[in-house]
């Protein structure tokens, strides 16, 4: 005890003995104890009376105040850093009680939802401002999070319409569900306004699509020009030989030798045209096909991610993937490109038709009898009319205003090169495409 406090110590002690009770004796003041080195040490002191065998004992506990203050300061600094991080990133924080259907949220969340100052809101009111087209995909994310067999991860994006100013915003949400005894008890997460990012991504995608279309058109034009150049001379020769033969037959002065020579010329030039065409196609497709064992379930997930990152998201994916699927045999990049093309076509068709709650179902299964893997991509869009169904795989046939009609033709050629088949199932709700690949040996 420091010397300056010793004179009054006996007075305080006797007063406490007169009415012993558990209490702290600092009363908001900073007390000090004397260290061995003679320096003062700030402390908090609590007294706890106890009786043992009829005798009164006082348990005196000293807490080092400096460490307590340091912990408090560290907590304040940590909270301030978190506040600044939230403010800089524009994050909102929420906690969802799935049993009581109540959401506790912070000021940023209430601002985005155009809500009052209440720190909690019913699930029904929370959902009321979410865009109708995004309800199904958001519910799918919730269903995944509450599944005790999963990781509890909750990741989704959706639009909300602020009831105060009517502004529509894109919201990205990340969270994790907590479980007790296999039951979902609490979802904690953050939200972020990504409207500007979405707008920027849409502009970039439009520019990328326009550039890709222009490039593809240029390639198609140059390819057509090269084919025309290679075929022009033999076709002209065939025409000339045919005119000679036809003229000879019409004038009844046909010389069998000359007629035979003209027809042989036609055959020779036709074969020349065929050889030129095959050589050109071989040049355009040069390179050996490298195949490997493929996990089609993984490739489907990768294709979905690529389609979304390329601006073709906004749909609810329904995956029906066969568990313990045998490996397929094929070229990974080519199969992935076919899947991405089918997904893009489905999204464009549903967007063009204004399909609400658009969805794409991807099914992967084994056709054991044929030793083939079977993949199905089905959308819930407007589908295809009979005439389009007949011509959908024709080169340069398209129903898109900015398409060139090569996507499905190339996709079918790629699947066939990998030993499979690609076809359209007619007369279905939406458009349903199938393709097969051989199973790996």
Question: How would you describe the overall organization of this protein?
Answer:
The protein is α+β, with helices and mostly antiparallel strands and 441 residues long. It has 11 helices and 17 strands. Helix 9 packs antiparallel against helix 11. The termini are far apart.
Which SSEs are present, and which pair or pack?
Layout: H1 3-18, E1 23-24, E2 31-34, E3 40-52, E4 55-64, H2 65-89, E5 91-97, E6 102-105, H3 107-113, E7 120-122, H4 123-128, H5 135-145, E8 153-161, E9 168-180, E10 183-193, H6 195-250, H7 256-284, E11 292-294, H8 296-309, E12 316-321, E13 328-330, H9 332-353, E14 359-367, E15 372-379, H10 386-391, H11 407-417, E16 422-425, E17 432-438
Parallel strand pairs: 12-14
Antiparallel strand pairs: 1-3, 2-3, 3-4, 5-6, 5-10, 6-7, 8-9, 9-10, 11-13, 14-15, 15-17, 16-17
The total domain count is: 4
Order of helices and strands: HEEEEHEEHEHHEEEHHEHEEHEEHHEE
Gross morphology is: elongated
- Major sheet summary line: 6 strands, antiparallel
Q: Find the structural class using helix and strand composition.
A: alpha+beta
Radius of gyration from CA coordinates:
38 Å
CATH topology assignment of the largest domain: Heat Shock Protein 90
CATH superfamily membership of the largest domain: Histidine kinase-like ATPase, C-terminal domain
Number-wise, the strands total 17
Helix content: 40-55%
The separation of the N and C termini measures: 86 Å
Which residues sit in consecutive blocks of at least 5 with pLDDT less than 50?
A: none
CATH architecture annotation of the largest domain: 2-Layer Sandwich
């Amino acid at each position: 005890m420091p010397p300056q406090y010793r004179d009054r110590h006996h007075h305080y002690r006797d007063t406490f003995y007169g009415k012993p009770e558990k209490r702290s004796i600092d009363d908001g003041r900073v007390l000090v104890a004397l260290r061995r080195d003679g320096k003062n040490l700030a402390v908090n002191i609590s007294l706890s009376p106890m009786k043992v065998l009829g005798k009164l004992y006082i348990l005196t506990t000293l807490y080092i105040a400096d460490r307590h203050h340091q912990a408090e300061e560290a907590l304040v600094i940590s909270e301030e850093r978190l506040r600044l991080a939230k403010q800089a990133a524009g994050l909102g924080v929420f906690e969802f009680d799935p049993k009581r259907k109540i959401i506790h949220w912070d000021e940023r969340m209430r601002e985005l939802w155009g809500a009052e100052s209440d720190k909690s809101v019913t699930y029904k009111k929370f959902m009321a401002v979410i865009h109708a087209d995004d309800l199904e995909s958001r519910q799918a994310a919730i269903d995944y999070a509450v599944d005790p067999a999963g990781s509890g991860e909750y990741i989704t994006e959706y639009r909300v319409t602020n009831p105060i100013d009517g502004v529509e915003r894109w919201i990205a949400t990340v969270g994790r569900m907590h479980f007790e005894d296999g039951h979902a008890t609490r979802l904690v997460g953050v939200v972020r306004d990504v409207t500007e990012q979405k707008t920027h991504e849409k502009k970039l995608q439009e520019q990328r699509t326009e550039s890709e279309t222009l490039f593809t058109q240029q390639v198609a034009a140059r390819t057509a020009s090269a084919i025309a150049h290679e075929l022009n001379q033999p076709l002209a020769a065939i025409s000339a030989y045919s005119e000679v033969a036809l003229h000879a037959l019409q004038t009844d002065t046909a010389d069998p030798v000359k007629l035979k020579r003209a027809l042989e010329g036609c055959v020779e030039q036709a074969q020349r045209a065929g050889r030129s065409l095959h050589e050109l196609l071989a040049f355009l497709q040069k390179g050996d096909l490298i195949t490997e064992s493929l996990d089609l379930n993984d490739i489907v997930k990768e294709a979905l991610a690529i389609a979304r990152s390329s601006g073709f998201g906004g749909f609810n994916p329904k995956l029906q993937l066969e568990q313990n699927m045998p490996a397929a045999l094929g070229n990974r990049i080519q199969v992935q490109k076919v899947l991405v093309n089918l997904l893009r076509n489905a999204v464009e068709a549903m967007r063009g038709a204004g399909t609400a709650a658009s969805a794409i179902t991807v099914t992967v299964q084994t056709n054991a009898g044929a030793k083939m893997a079977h993949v199905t991509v089905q959308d819930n869009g407007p589908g295809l009319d009979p005439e389009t169904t007949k011509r959908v795989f024709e080169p340069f046939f398209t129903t898109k205003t900015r398409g060139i009609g090569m996507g499905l033709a190339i996709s079918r050629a790629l699947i066939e090169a990998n030993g499979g088949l690609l076809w359209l199932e007619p007369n279905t709700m939406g458009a349903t495409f199938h393709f097969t690949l051989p199973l790996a040996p």
